Amino acid sequence: MVSDDAAMRKYFAKSGDSLLVNARGKLFINCATIAPRVHLEVEELAGKAGARSLEACMASSITQARDGYLYLMCGGDKGGVSCARNRFWKNLGKPSVTSESGEAAKIKALVNMVMNINTAGLAEGLGLGDAIGP
Prior knowledge:
single chain; Rossmann fold; 4-stranded mixed sheet; 6 helices; 4 strands; 52% helix; elongated
């Protein structure tokens, strides 16, 4: 996981100190919440290096992670999904949504938006309740 689009592009740079150096045959599973287009860029760069890239955006909490029930929204080629199935999801959960690259990041953005709307609504309700008083 990385913090943002710029960090992802740095780690998957076309040259220099990059994860793509000697990447042939590797599978990169990217769990960062970044722009969908960056997942597509990384997939293309990985492919040119002879590797695969899979986006695996998470929407769960610490409790689900500890219990092995992460809700994963995955995007990438079916070969990458198959490769990751026994290695990654065996201990961390299983894919809940599988689609083309870039699509999982869109679903993750939608999930975050709904969660933020609920949080904002709760805050408004609590504020109103406090203003009204007992």
